[in-house]
Amino acid sequence: MKVNNEYIQISLGNRVFTRKNMILNRYLQHLIDIQFKGKKTPHEGRFTEVFFQLDTKKTINKDDIINYWDRETGNFNFSGLLVYGSYNQSYTKNTIKLIQTYTQGAYFELDGGYVRGDSTDLINHKLTGVGFGINAGLMTWVDLSDMDIIIQPGEKLTISRVDNFSTDLEIIGCDYPRHLTNINRYDNDLPTTVFLYSVGLGEDKNYMNKEYVIGEDVNVIDENLGFKVPISKETNTQIYPSEDKQPFTNLYPSKSTDNYIIYKYKIYKIVYGEDQETFEDTGEYYLGSIKIKNNDIQYIKTKIRSD
């Protein structure tokens, strides 16, 4: 799996500023977590707000875990928050392009309080940094302190980003690798999501000779920015009778070789309850297959990286 930020764009009236941002490891781990049912995390990869910093430089590192509001001190870690946003996804068989845009909208947050979207409170302030978050947790950041972006009268702040997600898996049974962003979609007017159900090995890329159901046959082992599933490469041996003899006499073995690692992603209907969502198996699924390169398989591993 790979995620690449194509660019961040800050628009103020007719002025446009473009940069690439730093993707925090927290977001990479989030993209791993959303593949599993039962993880205590929002199960989508899209962002829910934009953090912004005014006047003073904010130093953020790739490994930082920082939220908009500090529960221990009660202080706000950033100047403000944009909450009015939209997104659009386009895709190929192995990639997803996700475009997201946030504006001042009807209101935004500033210094811990709500202000009207047409407020002049941002005028004459220097924009020194912006970041995208999920449920008030910072996931990406770009430092703008060297760009001298002063917000002028009549300008409204709009922040957009374009990200590309890709996989080495060959997807079978779906138009695109939904699990990369796992954004809810409607199938037959029902909201659905996907989770990794099982992994396995197969002679053909679209059929598992041996299937390992996660949580039943095997348990997932968490790794830094990835996961692995313990598994052994087995040679399946079946017994067939010789054609010129009576059945079950003069038997000989025929061996079937595993050539592919296969991931099965099941599609679940989302049921919205008062307190939380639950998921119902629709019976539908798709596969992701990749050719085996190492004959001595002990684990099926998945890692995520960013540029």
Structure at a glance:
By secondary structure, the chain is mainly β. It has one helix spanning 25-33; strands at 2-12, 15-19, 22-23, 49-54, 80-82, 84-91, 95-103, 107-110, 113-116, 126-134, 137-138, 140-143, 149-150, 157-166, 170-172, 185-187, 190-202, 210-213, 221-223, 226-230, 236-240, 252-256, 260-272, 277-291, 299-303, 305-306. The protein has one helix and 26 strands.
Structure description:
The protein contains one helix and 26 strands. It folds into two domains: 2-166, no CATH class; 172-306, no CATH class. It is elongated and about 70 Å long. It has one helix spanning 25-33; strands spanning 2-12, 15-19, 22-23, 49-54, 80-82, 84-91, 95-103, 107-110, 113-116, 126-134, 137-138, 140-143, 149-150, 157-166, 170-172, 185-187, 190-202, 210-213, 221-223, 226-230, 236-240, 252-256, 260-272, 277-291, 299-303, 305-306. With 307 residues, the chain is mostly beta strands. β19 and β20 (226-230) form a beta hairpin. Strands 3, 4, 5, 8, 9, 10, 11, 12 and 13 form a nine-stranded antiparallel sheet that branches. Strands 1, 2, 6, 7, 14 and 26 form a six-stranded mixed sheet that branches. Strands 15, 16, 17, 18, 23 and 24 form a six-stranded antiparallel sheet that branches. 3% of the residues lie in helices and 50% in strands.
